[in-house]
Amino acid sequence: MRIDIVSIFPPMFAGAFDHSIVKRARERGIVRIDVHDLRAHTTDRHRSVDDEPYGGGPGMVMTPEPWFRAVESLREEGERGRAILMTPQGRRLDQRIVRELAAEERLILLCGRYEGVDERVREHLVDDEISIGDYVLSGGEPAAVVLVDAVVRLQAGALGSAQSTVEESFSDGLLEYPQYTRPAEFRGWSVPDILLSGHHAEIVRWRRRQQIERTRLRRPDLLPDGDADTEVLDAN
Ligand code: 9D3
């Protein structure tokens, strides 16, 4: 898979893809990630990427020309790719969308800044718009890092064999059970006896109950046919 990122702040990605699973996937040739400076695609003396909004109002709007030039030049080499604008107005990223994007040959991620991007970019250039959640970032760059991480770890061969086993057994939509390691007692706090008992079948049942109970209390939205009122009452 190929991922191109277009931004006015390429240094924000320094080191972001140089560790852990993403690093290994790049080293293995599973994914190629290139960051591009939007300003390289400006044509005016001041390399401007924004201008005042038509109709007035606060802030600046990112001008369409550099985005079109950047994406069109990327598309001249290799696959067309799926161009995605990172924006608070996009579809909210979840694991279903991550799987959908992970199946693409190439992604071109556009990171906006300022108050927004000229509407013609969304209407005539990009194929998709993605948000990573309902909170305010200063721009699309951190969102692009999140998306890349989630998509790359789904590429075949990106995970070590131990990790892929874990991935499969926990992809059941529940939160994880509580985990402990040595020491059995730490500052007076003990590991639950059941985990030291060696009764494997009972441990499996205990962990399952913990998963369900924890999900019911903390993330009832993940459970099928939840009654929100009842769940809040039970939690308190
Ligand atoms: C404070 C300005 N906001 C009200 C006019 C609009 C606004 C514009 C641009 C809010 C945030 C941003 C910058 N954010 C992103 O570009 C962004 C984002 C986000 O803020 N949250 C979650 N996902 C994303 S993806 C891109």
Output the keywords.
2 domains; elongated; 236 residues; alpha/beta; 9 helices; five-stranded parallel sheet; Trp Operon Repressor, Chain A; binds ligand 9D3
What would you say this structure looks like, in words?
It is elongated, with a radius of gyration of 23 Å. The longest helix is centred in the last third of the chain and has 19 residues, at 200-218. With 236 residues, it is of the alpha/beta class. It has helices at residues 20-27, 64-76, 95-102, 119-124, 141-152, 161-169, 193-196, 200-218, 228-235, and strands spanning 2-7, 32-37, 50-51, 61-62, 82-92, 106-111, 116-117, 128-131, 185-186, 189-190. It contains nine helices and ten strands. Helices cover 37% and strands 18% of the residues. The mean pLDDT is 94. Strands 2-1-6-5-8 form a five-stranded parallel beta sheet. A three-stranded mixed beta sheet has the order 3-4-7. Strands 9-10 form a two-stranded antiparallel ribbon. The chain has two domains: 2-152, 3-Layer(aba) Sandwich (Alpha/beta knot), CATH 3.40.1280; 167-235, tRNA(m1g37)methyltransferase, domain 2 (Trp Operon Repressor, Chain A, Orthogonal Bundle). Strand 9 (185-186) and strand 10 form a beta hairpin.
**What percent of residues adopt helix (DSSP H or I)?**
25-40%
| Helix-strand pattern | EHEEEHEHEEHEHHEEHHH
CA radius of gyration:
23 Å
- What is the straight-line distance between the termini? 47 Å
Shape: elongated
Could you say what the CATH topology of the largest domain is called?
A: Alpha/beta knot
The name of the CATH architecture of the largest domain is: 3-Layer(aba) Sandwich
Overall mean pLDDT score? 94
Query: Which CATH class of the largest domain applies here?
Result: Alpha Beta
Helix/strand/pairing category: alpha/beta
